[in-house]
Automatic annotation (TrEMBL):
<dbReference type="GO" id="GO:0030295">
    <property type="term" value="F:protein kinase activator activity"/>
</dbReference>
<dbReference type="InterPro" id="IPR036097">
    <property type="entry name" value="HisK_dim/P_sf"/>
</dbReference>
<dbReference type="GO" id="GO:0000155">
    <property type="term" value="F:phosphorelay sensor kinase activity"/>
</dbReference>
<feature type="transmembrane region" description="Helical">
    <location>
        <begin position="193"/>
        <end position="217"/>
    </location>
</feature>
<protein>
    <recommendedName>
        <fullName>histidine kinase</fullName>
        <ecNumber>2.7.13.3</ecNumber>
    </recommendedName>
</protein>
<feature type="coiled-coil region">
    <location>
        <begin position="216"/>
        <end position="243"/>
    </location>
</feature>
<feature type="domain" description="Histidine kinase">
    <location>
        <begin position="261"/>
        <end position="497"/>
    </location>
</feature>
<dbReference type="GO" id="GO:0007234">
    <property type="term" value="P:osmosensory signaling via phosphorelay pathway"/>
</dbReference>
<keyword id="KW-0812">Transmembrane</keyword>
<dbReference type="InterPro" id="IPR036890">
    <property type="entry name" value="HATPase_C_sf"/>
</dbReference>
<keyword id="KW-0808">Transferase</keyword>
<keyword id="KW-0418">Kinase</keyword>
<dbReference type="InterPro" id="IPR003661">
    <property type="entry name" value="HisK_dim/P_dom"/>
</dbReference>
<dbReference type="InterPro" id="IPR003594">
    <property type="entry name" value="HATPase_dom"/>
</dbReference>
<keyword id="KW-0597">Phosphoprotein</keyword>
<dbReference type="InterPro" id="IPR007891">
    <property type="entry name" value="CHASE3"/>
</dbReference>
<dbReference type="InterPro" id="IPR004358">
    <property type="entry name" value="Sig_transdc_His_kin-like_C"/>
</dbReference>
Length: 503
């Protein structure tokens, strides 16, 4: 029943999560769409605003050019009427100098408008004629020939040309006003579209928010209704966990006792086999002496099979029996050692890992000298509070294996490093030895399992013992290695061993 309730809770949670994720996805899509639309509308508004501003600039330029032409004509007439007044001449020269700049500016502003370019070509034609006549009359006035200048002025019909120029300016101004009305309308449409996008996005986001709120309110109500059931379920689960933990502890103790009893009971027949093997070996020596005497005194009664049995078959068979019994004795001792370690009470204490590695190195000094191996600590090792015996056995086993399984082409280099990270302490033992095939990374930690060429003594107990000790200390051990590239064993432990959890 409790499992069914937990399953229903998980299903409801999953449905609610999917619904909320769907609402969030819709909301994000709405935001993205609104952002894209707002960016596009903003760009359009900026473009239209720039176009409106450009129209205003063109209108101002038209007005400025027209003003300069009118002012130039006014100052010329004033100078004609009062040739002794220097201010008219100065004003005329200033206006004449500014007019080319103004017309160039107007031409640049309207280069993309074909109609305005047509108007400008007409304007240029009238201006060239007007400016030529102005220059002639101004030269006559400056030379003092007022009568000739007056006569020329009457003949040139400047008022007619000015009306023509004004008409061109009126056409250009009308063209810009038409453009301004069109661009104002486009800008208003862009603003309306922008607000429409904002309203639609706001409505969509509001709908998503309301729907999500309704779902959350409903889910909250369901949680309130199921809280009591969950509390009851948790209480029952706690009781189940306590019972299962107790059962596991009893099973573990029973397994350790069973291993101890089995290994102890196996030793009794093994001792008998070893004893009878010794007797057989002694009897074989007596039998071999008898065969040798018979060969000397009565060779006729001695067959070739009897000689072969006494001298080769029996000693070889006894040797096989002795080798097998010795191996079985080592296996039984290993099982007993594992069983005793499982029953041993852990004793946490502050450990100096640097000193511990140094002691292990000192204990192997003779072997290191013989093989040319080196053991180095990289950096400093972290502080650790744990069981001294277990940590010594782990490090000793890993370092001895690194020295034992060397690469034939290079001297052994073993490096020990470690550090504290978050709530764990890790220690690594690396070597440059023969390495371990990745397919065997798990099996090397199994009892009585080994990897690679079996050219070194051992029963496949060490790494199984190391992993069992690591588990008892609340840690784990992992392996990184490849054939021919050495191996790295990484031990991860809690910085302080808790007896409440691991005793």
């Amino acid at each position: 029943m409790a499992g069914e309730q937990g399953h229903s809770f998980a299903v409801n949670d999953g449905k609610i999560g999917r619904v909320l994720i769907a609402f969030m996805a819709v909301g994000f899509v709405a935001l993205i769409a609104a952002g894209i639309a707002a960016a596009w509308v903003t760009g359009e508004m900026a473009r239209h605003s720039q176009a409106v501003s450009h129209t205003y600039e063109v209108e101002l330029s038209i007005a400025e050019t027209r003003r300069l032409i009118e002012q130039g004509e006014t100052t010329r007439r004033g100078f004609l009427l009062s040739p002794t007044t220097a201010s008219f001449l100065d004003a005329y020269n200033t206006t004449a100098a500014a007019l080319p700049v103004a017309t160039k500016r107007l031409r640049q502003l309207t280069y993309d408008n074909p109609r305005q370019q047509v108007h400008l070509r007409t304007l240029d034609k009238h201006l060239r004629e007007l400016l030529a006549l102005r220059a002639e009359s101004m030269e006559l006035i400056v030379a003092g020939d007022i009568a000739e200048a007056t006569e020329r002025f009457r003949e040139e019909l400047s008022s007619v040309r000015l009306r023509q120029i004004r008409a061109v300016f009126d056409l250009m101004a009308r063209e810009e006003r038409n453009l301004l009305r069109t661009r104002d309308a486009q800008q208003e449409r862009s603003i309306s579209l922008f607000y429409t996008v904002l309203v639609v996005a706001g409505l969509l986001l509001g709908a998503v928010a309301i729907a999500a709120l309704l779902v959350v309110v409903r889910y909250t109500g369901d949680l309130a209704q199921s809280r009591e059931q969950l509390q009851q379920l948790n209480e029952s689960l706690e009781a189940i966990v306590v019972d299962r933990t107790s059962d596991l502890s009893r099973a573990n103790d029973e397994i350790q006792r069973f291993a101890y009893i089995v290994s102890h009971d196996l030793r009794s027949p093994l001792v008998n086999v070893m004893g009878f093997t010794a007797e057989l070996e002694a009897a074989t020596a007596t039998l071999r002496e008898l065969v040798e005497r018979a060969q000397e005194e009565a060779p006729a009664i001695l067959t070739e099979d009897a000689q072969l049995a006494a001298r080769e078959d029996l000693p070889e068979a006894i040797g096989f029996i002795r080798t097998s019994t010795q191996k079985m004795d080592r296996l039984i001792n290993a099982i007993l050692a594992l069983s005793r370690q499982g029953r041993r009470v852990l004793a946490p204490e502050p450990l100096d890992l640097m000193r511990m590695v140094g002691q292990i190195r000192d204990s192997m000094a003779h072997r290191l000298d013989e093989t040319g191996a080196s053991i180095d600590v990289v950096g400093s090792l972290p502080a650790l509070v744990s069981d001294r015996v277990a940590i010594e056995q782990i490090l000793s086993n890993l370092i001895e294996n690194a020295v034992k399984y060397r690469h034939p082409d290079r001297a052994v280099e073993v490096q020990v490093r470690g550090a504290a990270a978050a709530d764990r302490v890790w220690i690594e033992v690396s070597d440059n030895g023969r390495g371990i095939d990745p397919r065997d990374h798990e099996r090397v930690f199994d009892l009585f399992r080994r990897s690679g060429t079996q050219d070194q003594p051992g029963e496949g107990i060490g790494l199984a013992h190391v992993r069992a000790l690591a588990y008892r200390l609340g840690g784990t051990i992992t392996l990184r290695s490849a054939l021919g590239e050495g191996a790295t064993f990484r031990l991860s432990l809690p910085p302080t061993l808790s007896l409440q959890e691991k005793s």
